[in-house]
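This part of the workshop introduces the protein records we will be handling. An example says more than a description, so a record of this kind follows.
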Amino acid sequence: MIQFQTLRYYLSEHPSIVGFRWTHSQSWGNTWIFLITSIAAYIILSIFLHLLLLLLFRHRRPLPLGPIPAVHSLSMALISFTIFAGILLSTAAEIRDTRWFWRRYKTTPFQWLLCFPLGTRPSGRVFFWSYIFYLSRFLHTFRTFFTVIRRRKLGFFQLFNHSILIFMSFLWLEFSQSFQVLAIILTTFIYSVVYGYRFWTGVGLPSKCFHFVNHCQIVLLSCNVVCHVGVLLLHFLRGGCNGIGAWVLNSVLNGAILFLFLNFYVKLHLQKRKIVGAVEEAATILGSVKDKDI
């Protein structure tokens, strides 16, 4: 019990968490110039590294990175789970402290998770963890460099997805956008599982499901679509949700990510079916040849 109280203090009751404010003086990386520069630097560096390796290494054999990808996956799994636990405890604390406000305006905690009241400012517990989530998106981009170094592959979807995740996380804080608490809870939970699985396979342990990561991403994107519909309904039924302009842009970007991912997933599934069909056809031909020999 004492350990849980200590954990709750450091994840939701610490003065740095309770007193957090998204301002230029307290928050690193909270300007539009920093956002645009960092995303541009990520894209340019990825393309430059990709072209440089293609020039230096004409063969397509993978370049070994040792335990670095596994260490990165373990770190991201721990960071994601910490953010998940922190924002979960912080959400419970916010519900406890502002229950009187919701009773006055006849709202519920679930409605608050989807729709912030108009005038909400980016300060307090949940916005602290939203800020940590925003910073963790930069660590997430290291997977692009691992892919380029090991496989000499640089896909548009990977660059677009990572850049948009950083951009959307910034919008959540800049405009106190509704739905971000629930989005962070869902994303960090899925990411802690996904990166834990990547660490598991990265250290050489057996993989039971080849498309496990893709299935987790589909679940996350599907939950986001359902929650976005809920935000839209609450916006019209309750007279407005805070940061709805940023939410509209967020929805468009999420839709683009969903379209690109489904397009990739369908192509992967069709390619898999072609391979299976070719194997079955080869087995049939081989069997017929053996029958003729007999």
Summary: Residues 28 and 135 are 9 Å apart (CA to CA). The radius of gyration is 23 Å.
